[in-house]
Write a sequence for this structure.
């Protein structure tokens, strides 16, 4: 009987899945089991669109279609939870399984704590993620840096710090560091990311730490919740999955890899945030970059923290309608409302037509707010700083003090006279 | 519970951004990024982002309508076709005209051209691009051999200098604007000539507040300055061009001072611009509807020939198109046949009673002003095929409901000659049909079933590939790859990114200079003291998109702060703008981001000089 905290190697016994899946096929096998037993109504996973650079969110209701969704696509730069909120009513009336990267898992939690998604109806299988690469850039990278026609590539992966491609005629790997030095490689937010093993999910899966006999043939599974344990047990009982305890040395290796990735994340954060300068310098940089905004609303549409119907940016008292570029207040509103909860998913930056480094700015503020107020987004149901007080209640409290010294009142509440 | 992404092409501007239509239980529920598309890499502007709004609008036409006693009555397709067939049969070829759309698909325009030629037996067919870009297309054809952008939008970011004139990409073609932003981030120098300090002008390294309509003089001034400084590319001129002397002579009087006077700019503006532009290799020019009469594009082509900036990445002339298929419509033949009339000529002929009937597909020609609506009133018979009850449709005898881009298959060609797929994602609303299908059914009702019997959109496209040399070798299968094909296909797996690497498409393979003289437009002064910088297009789609209407509830006229103060006009006031040929009621946007003495407004009536009056507060 699996339980929360178990560390296992898992692999599928299903012949079809074995053919298509990577490294044990555990994730695909568990989804098959979940669909077949109707533990979920559907799973939302990624599959290949027009080619392996084209990641397409795919709703699978029939487990026979799962084989097409197996494997990993490192050009899958999208975020799934917002789709659940927008198009599936926040999973209010259905049970859905979703394969999540770290950013997806964090986004789910942020939407759930704001009551926009019913996490009780969502089963999350987390996958280790070292970062994703924007597809068009990946193709250019492969053509320019690897000297290979991107349309001859049939497999790509990120392993041991290298971006490796298998193509008609061979395979080639180049260190991610080198690629990123030359303007290629992972998205900037991915480089800063420190959510490599998404333990907020029900099961956290990947290939780090799978050593010995099962190397390359099994998936590492960390059981992170009762829901996950139950699902895993069911799959084993049904015969689609086999498991064994993970090799203790493998645990060490896994921890080491995670630690190494944290170090890399820290290094990139230091570099990115220091480059922003401080105080007025930082503000000037932000104002200059955001002055190219054309109000496409993509950042707001994609952000997992944004969902308000009456968005403050639409309030004509703050932002003149139809004015392009909009006043800096547009971005201040985003910063004020989002920064404490930003999970650095990078969507706002990836989708900006004006190449504004939105995620960099938001993330830079988030890390400082985390230090100041001790709130870490994306890992628990703790409400953000903005929600610490109900506006009406707090206004009344301040009013009742009879004092207009707001700062003192908020940070050193006056005793009632 | 059904959920799928259908990759397609945005129906708004000529950038041709790839978008994923989110289809939930058979409904167009939203737009999601298509990161894989090389044109826009998943990024879109607000128009494409909210395109599901106009498709799902309650205002969509859902059934044919026949006007009876001045009122529209719902009709069956059969009855509508009967009405149309008998009216069209009663008119001779030279008394009927067809207006094609720059916003539906190549397949629609091809079939419509066929219909005009073989069923109506008329050479009078033209597309709406006539007013904004058709002359530019002609200009490029005369200069280089092809009437299209010479380069790809992506290689704009390889330019070391970009001159933007007659265009506001950051607002009108934002994803082309992005390429300019990327160029600037890589160190390119951006020169923007515009009487308005647009979003594009705000990223310029050199901003020239050039009076509207004087851009030809400005470009001629740059050419002259380049030649005077001995910086012309003598090798390129000698080997790849002809008639340089004509151009040289024509620009000789365009000294920095004389150009300064004409354009209302400083004496050294031209010199600065010329230095910046000539110092960079490669250097690109971006222009658009502001090119208007082909003169500006010819001047720009001259500049690029003088500086040897054609036939390589980061150079060339990028003609940004305002509508998703402006390029394609003309490519596939929606232009007058021999002796046929342009749209403007058709309107004049209708006003004179010589054109008795018009068939207008997907164009709101009435938005061009009172002279058009008056002309339409004189027609015996008007058929309008559209998605919405536009002003033009309101004047029709028969209105036919068109399917939107989300509701049918087809192809559209963007400004960089990329032929991309439009894919059916949902069933058409009501009984709407794809434009080509309607045209084929009218042909059938007129006894010409065999002429236009196409099985589906792909079958039509295969005919286009046979009939249109630029489209040879392109198939739907090839268009399944997101790169699609940039015509001509022969240039490579994905077609030709940069034209004229070897030689030009002219008869002798050489590019042709031309003498382009600045022609002053209508003079300002007296009753009409303001110069006009026109905006395009007119909002037929966006006016039905709630998110966009929230930003711009009314069409705007942009007025300089000081000018507004003198007239007592405040931001948001509704004003009347009038010229010699018409007037419009617009909302004032008062700003310092426009030159004194200039206003910017939609091209609702063609005027280069206007006056502004406050309206009575309701």
């Amino acid at each position: 009987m699996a339980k929360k905290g178990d560390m296992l190697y898992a692999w599928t016994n299903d012949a079809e899945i074995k053919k298509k899946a990577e490294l044990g096929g555990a994730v695909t096998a568990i989804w098959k089991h979940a669909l077949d037993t109707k533990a979920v109504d559907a799973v939302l996973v990624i599959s290949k669109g027009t080619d392996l650079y084209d990641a397409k969110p795919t709703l699978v209701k029939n487990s026979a279609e799962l084989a097409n969704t197996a494997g990993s696509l490192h050009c899958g730069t999208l975020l799934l939870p917002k789709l659940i909120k927008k198009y599936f009513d926040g999973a209010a009336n259905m049970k859905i399984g979703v394969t999540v990267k770290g950013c997806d898992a964090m986004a789910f939690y942020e939407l759930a704590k704001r009551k926009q998604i019913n996490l009780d109806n969502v089963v999350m299988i987390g996958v280790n993620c070292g970062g994703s690469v924007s597809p068009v850039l990946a193709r250019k990278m492969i053509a320019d840096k690897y000297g290979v026609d991107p349309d001859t590539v049939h497999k790509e992966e990120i392993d041991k710090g290298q971006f490796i491609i298998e193509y008609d005629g061979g395979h080639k790997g180049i260190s991610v560091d080198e690629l990123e030095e030359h303007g290629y490689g992972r998205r900037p937010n991915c480089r800063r990311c420190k959510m490599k093993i998404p333990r907020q999910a029900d099961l956290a899966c990947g290939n780090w730490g799978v050593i010995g006999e099962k190397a390359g043939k099994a998936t590492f599974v960390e059981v992170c919740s009762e829901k996950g344990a139950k699902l895993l047990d069911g799959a084993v009982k049904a015969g689609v999955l086999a498991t064994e305890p993970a090799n203790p040395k493998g645990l060490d290796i896994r921890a080491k890899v995670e630690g190494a990735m944290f170090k890399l994340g820290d290094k990139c954060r230091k570099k990115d945030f220091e480059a922003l300068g401080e105080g007025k310098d930082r503000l000037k940089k932000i104002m200059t970059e955001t002055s190219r905004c054309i109000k496409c609303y993509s950042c707001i549409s994609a952000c997992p923290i944004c969902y308000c119907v009456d968005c403050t940016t639409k309030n004509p008292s703050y932002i003149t309608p139809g004015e392009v570029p909009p006043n800096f207040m547009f971005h201040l509103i985003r910063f004020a409302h989002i920064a404490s909860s930003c999970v650095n998913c990078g969507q706002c930056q990836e989708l900006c037509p004006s190449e504004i480094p939105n995620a960099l700015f938001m993330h830079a503020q988030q890390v400082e707010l985390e230090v100041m107020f001790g709130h870490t987004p994306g890992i628990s149901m703790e409400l953000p700083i903005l929600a610490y007080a109900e506006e009406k209640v707090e206004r009344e409290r301040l009013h009742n003090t009879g004092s207009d010294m707001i700062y003192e009142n908020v940070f050193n509440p006056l005793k009632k006279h | 519970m059904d959920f799928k992404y259908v990759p397609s092409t945005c129906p708004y501007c000529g950038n041709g951004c790839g978008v994923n239509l989110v289809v939930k239980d058979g409904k167009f529920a939203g737009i999601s990024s298509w990161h894989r598309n090389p044109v826009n890499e998943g990024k879109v502007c607000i128009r494409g982002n909210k395109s599901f709004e106009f498709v799902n609008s309650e205002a969509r036409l859902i059934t044919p309508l026949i006007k009876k006693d001045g009122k529209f009555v719902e009709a069956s397709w059969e009855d509508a076709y009967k009405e149309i067939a008998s009216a069209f049969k009663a008119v001779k070829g030279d008394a009927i005209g067809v207006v094609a759309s720059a916003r539906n698909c190549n397949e629609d325009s091809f079939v419509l051209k066929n219909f005009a030629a073989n069923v109506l037996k008329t050479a009078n067919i033209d597309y709406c691009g006539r007013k904004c870009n058709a002359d530019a297309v002609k200009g490029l054809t005369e200069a280089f051999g092809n009437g299209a952008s010479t380069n790809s939008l992506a290689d704009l970011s390889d330019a070391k200098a970009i001159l933007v004139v007659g265009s506001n990409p950051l607002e009108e073609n934002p994803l082309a604007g992005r390429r300019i932003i990327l160029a600037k981030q890589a160190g390119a120098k951006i020169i923007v000539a515009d009487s308005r300090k647009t979003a594009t002008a705000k990223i310029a390294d050199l901003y020239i507040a050039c009076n509207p309509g004087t851009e030809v003089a400005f470009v001629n001034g740059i050419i002259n300055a380049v030649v005077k400084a001995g910086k012309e590319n003598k090798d390129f001129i000698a080997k790849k061009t002809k008639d340089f002397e004509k151009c040289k002579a024509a620009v000789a009087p365009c000294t920095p001072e004389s150009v300064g006077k004409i354009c209302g700019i400083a004496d050294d503006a031209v010199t600065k611009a010329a230095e910046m532009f000539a110092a960079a290799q490669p250097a690109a020019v971006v222009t658009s509807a502001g090119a208007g009469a082909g003169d500006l594009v010819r001047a720009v082509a001259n500049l690029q020939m003088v500086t040897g900036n054609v036939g390589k990445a980061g150079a060339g002339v990028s003609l940004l198109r305002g509508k998703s298929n402006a390029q394609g419509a003309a490519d596939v033949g929606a232009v007058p046949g021999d002796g046929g009339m342009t749209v403007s000529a058709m309107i004049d002929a209708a006003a004179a009673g010589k054109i008795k009937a018009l068939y207008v597909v997907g164009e709101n020609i009435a938005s061009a002003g009172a002279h058009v609506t008056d002309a339409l009133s004189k027609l015996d018979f008007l058929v309008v095929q559209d998605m919405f009850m536009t002003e033009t449709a309101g004047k029709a005898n028969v209105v036919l409901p068109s399917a939107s881009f989300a509701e049918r298959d087809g192809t559209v060609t963007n400004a960089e000659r990329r032929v991309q797929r439009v894919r059916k994602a949902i069933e058409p609303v009501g009984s709407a049909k794809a434009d080509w299908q309607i045209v084929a059914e009218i042909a059938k009702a007129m006894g010409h079933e065999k002429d236009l019997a196409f099985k589906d959109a792909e079958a039509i496209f295969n005919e286009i590939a046979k009939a249109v040399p630029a489209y040879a070798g392109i198939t739907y299968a090839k268009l399944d790859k997101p790169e699609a094909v940039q015509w001509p296909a022969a240039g490579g797996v994905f077609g030709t990114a940069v034209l004229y690497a070897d030689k030009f498409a002219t008869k002798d393979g050489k590019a042709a200079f031309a003498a382009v003289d600045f022609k002053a437009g209508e003079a300002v002064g007296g009753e009409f003291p303001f110069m006009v910088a026109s905006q395009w297009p007119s909002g037929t789609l966006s006016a039905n998109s709630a998110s966009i209407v929230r930003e711009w509830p009314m069409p705007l006229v942009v007025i300089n702060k000081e000018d507004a103060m003198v007239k007592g006009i405040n931001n948001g006031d509704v004003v009347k703008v009038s010229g010699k040929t018409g007037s419009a009621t617009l909302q004032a946007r008062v700003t310092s981001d426009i030159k004194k003495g200039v206003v910017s407004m939609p091209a609702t009536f063609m005027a280069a000089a206007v006056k502004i009056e406050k309206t009575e507060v309701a």
About this structure: The longest strand of chain A covers residues 42-48. The mean pLDDT of chain A is 93.
